[in-house]
Amino acid sequence: MSDPNLRDFYGRVARIEQAHSAGMGFEAEGALGRSHYRRPDRSRRGFVKPLLLVLLCGFGMKATIHYKVGAASYDARVTALKAGEGFDLLGAALMQADPVTVFLSAQIARGVAALERQAGA
User: Fold this and answer.
1) pTM to 2 decimals?
2) Which of 22, 38, 97, 114 has its CA 20 to 30 A from that of 16?
């Protein structure tokens, strides 16, 4: 005695397995399957954040050099660059000690002094 519902069920399972082995997918009616979703549109990359990151790194590098070699030596090196020609002039304009560089250099000096006091105590 064979149950007709069970035969129907196994028949449907066999069709699904056969279709699956042939490379077809199966999505139940009303289910949100793979075909429902689509790749989101690519958004344009921002311009401001990378520019700010480059500026921050540039000022940080200038401030570190300003702190490490000292203000007098830094200004002497920039003056020597100003005496050059071509890209030396561009380097002198970029490496000039501006207020942001001097401020960050002072903050680095203050931080290093605090670390040295902490290590000495």
Assistant:
1) 0.61
2) 38
